[in-house]
Design a protein that fits this description.
alpha/beta, Rossmann fold, seven-stranded parallel sheet, six-stranded parallel sheet, 10 helices
Length: about 325
């Protein structure tokens, strides 16, 4: 059994959940048994169950009880996707004799990982861990994206999607800016979005609102430019040829936005607290941005990550 231990909430966001689902599907396709260990968050639990996974609810903040030991029997590998793991937790996994994998981990537990997959680490300081796989070639992107890849040449449709939870209400801020410029857009709100009242106060008839969609790759296929957060979404969009304007929801997303701008498929509009509104009215080189995204963000990351995990088994 491979355990995928993740954190997903309105505060943390839901990017870890969606990334881990891509990994779980890839592992299952290779014949591995997987189980999710997750904090109690109703929208995330519903998504997992709808995808055919029955998760175990755990208290990720508990450093005293040793809850991890309840899952060591029959375990072959422990994978964390939680952003900040603690050394106490990591040592407990290692003391149980398990190989430990972590993703983009900024916590003290990262140093104990046998494998640290740091696809989103663009800082000058290298991540911690015994073996580190770093770079966009290790991004876990949905294979469904391949069905919807196309080159964009002009903007006929604008998409706004700022995360499964949009913790800080960046969608409201972006809508205000777009409304001031008389721009039309489709808004996709995530399952943990909690700013409906504030959003309704600023909406105009120029905006179409969708409360969740069955497939983000399919939804993205209908648009020519997206305004996104700085997590996995703009990488997924660029891989499909969809240029992005990136707004960082969290400080740690700032390097992601800067890296995507460097690669050419996106422009970085800054942190949500200080958005550069001028980018939204700028004439953008859409075709060049679309080509850059298709060229630099590939879909082979899942296969590379699964191979690295299988090497630990």
């Amino acid at each position: 059994m491979i355990y995928l231990c993740i954190e997903s909430s309105h505060t943390r966001g839901m990017g870890h959940l969606y990334r881990s689902l891509t990994l779980a599907d890839a592992l299952c396709a290779r014949g591995h048994a997987v189980r999710f260990l997750i904090n109690d968050h109703a929208p995330s639990l519903a998504i997992l169950r709808a995808r055919g996974y029955e998760p175990a609810i755990v208290n990720l903040t508990d450093m005293e009880s040793g809850w991890e030991n309840a899952f060591k029997k029959g375990a072959t590998l422990w994978v964390n996707d939680r952003l900040d793991t603690h050394a106490i937790h990591a040592q407990r996994i290692k003391n149980a004799g398990l190989a430990l994998v972590t993703f983009d981990d900024r916590g003290s537990g990262a140093a104990f990982a046998d494998l640290h997959i740091a696809a989103l680490n663009f800082d000058e300081t290298p991540p911690a861990g015994k073996n580190i796989l770093r770079g966009v070639e290790y991004l876990l992107l949905s294979p469904d994206i391949a069905r919807y890849q196309r080159l964009r040449k002009k903007v006929d449709s604008l998409l706004v999607t700022l995360g499964g939870s949009d913790t800080h209400g960046a969608t409201v801020k972006v809508v205000k800016l777009l409304a001031a410029q008389k721009q039309k857009a489709t808004l996709v709100l995530g399952p943990s979005f909690a700013h409906h009242t504030e959003l309704e106060a600023v909406l105009t008839p120029d905006f179409t609102v969708k409360n969740g969609v069955p497939s983000m790759p399919e939804e993205m296929a209908h648009h020519d430019l997206a305004i996104t957060g700085g997590g996995m979404t703009p990488f997924e969009a660029n891989a499909a040829g969809l240029p992005c304007i990136v707004v960082a929801n969290e400080d740690f997303e700032i390097p992601n936005g800067q890296k995507l701008e460097q690669l050419g498929g996106s422009l970085f509009a800054g942190h949500h607290a200080n958005i550069d509104a001028s980018i939204f009215s700028r004439a953008l080189p859409i075709e060049a941005m679309s080509r850059a995204g298709l060229e630099h963000i590939g879909l082979g990351g899942a296969a590379r990550v699964v191979a690295a995990l299988e090497a630990l088994l």
